[in-house]
Design brief:
Rossmann fold, 7-stranded parallel beta sheet, single chain
């Protein structure tokens, strides 16, 4: 499918972290199809470059930048590259995230706790910290942060991940109130079980685990990354102009 030259994001610029695969890649492509120029940011430079290739293949404009979202200077550099390449920042999808090794709370090593919180929560904060001033300069923008179904309920053997994803929702809501009067809308998404490389790493080829995961989804299947991407693009669009500080659950009924 080619890009839409008269799309809702024509002339606009989107910044996507975790854009090398999964939901991030699908969203980068969705922004491009809607007419945006896209910055694909990821710690995996090869994966980010592949996403750019896919965007260019459909007639879009994109650049790849290396970005470890836990590192202030890498976040700042990635956003500097965004402005150098495209001159503005209209939409940001702070999506980079990692899974937690499953284990009971008291068994989680401190280094594992710190690793999960650093990427999944601190990373979202750092990105917003440096995205928001760029949007303030130009008079507005939209940000979507990736939480999870684990952001609205607890799961066994996942305390670090659940804590980080709950934190993303709290951070989103507070930041949304800080900047709504400045024409910056900030929201979050809470995907359910989605067919991504992260989920495949968790399953590890175990058919029993796959069936157990699918049994949690009343819809009877995993989400496609494109289904999550469509929601992100909508939240960043003018069609969602009165949606502020919301955590949109997209999980096939898992947390109902």
């Amino acid at each position: 499918m080619a890009t839409n030259k008269n799309g809702i994001f024509t002339g606009k610029v989107a910044f996507v972290t975790g854009g090398a695969s999964g939901i991030g890649r699908a969203t980068a492509l969705a922004f491009a199809r809607a007419g945006a120029s896209v910055v694909v940011a990821d710690i995996s430079e090869q994966g980010a470059q592949e996403t750019v290739r896919l965007i260019e293949e459909i007639g879009g404009r994109a650049i790849a930048v290396r970005c470890d979202v836990t590192q202030t200077e890498e976040v700042k550099t990635a956003l500097d590259r965004t402005i150098e390449a495209f001159g503005r920042l209209d939409a940001a999808f702070n999506n980079a995230g990692i899974e937690q090794a499953p284990m009971a709370t008291a068994d989680i090593p401190e280094v594992e706790w710190d690793r999960v919180i650093a990427v999944n929560l601190r990373g979202v904060f750092l990105c917003m910290k440096y995205e928001i001033p760029l949007m303030l300069k130009q008079g507005g923008g939209a940000i979507v942060n990736t939480s999870s179904g684990a952001g609205i309920k607890g799961f066994r053997d996942g305390a670090a991940y659940v804590t980080a994803k709950h934190g993303v929702i709290g951070l989103t809501r507070s930041a949304a109130l800080d900047y709504v009067s400045h024409n910056i809308r900030i929201n979050a998404i809470c995907p359910g079980i989605t067919s991504t490389p992260m989920i495949e790493r968790i399953i590890g080829g175990d058919d029993v685990m796959r069936e157990q995961l699918l049994a949690q989804e009343p819809a009877g299947r995993m989400a496609h990354p494109e289904e999550i991407a469509n929601a992100v693009v909508w939240l960043c669009s003018d069609a969602a102009s009165f949606v502020v500080g919301h955590a949109l659950v997209i999980d096939g009924g898992q947390t109902v």
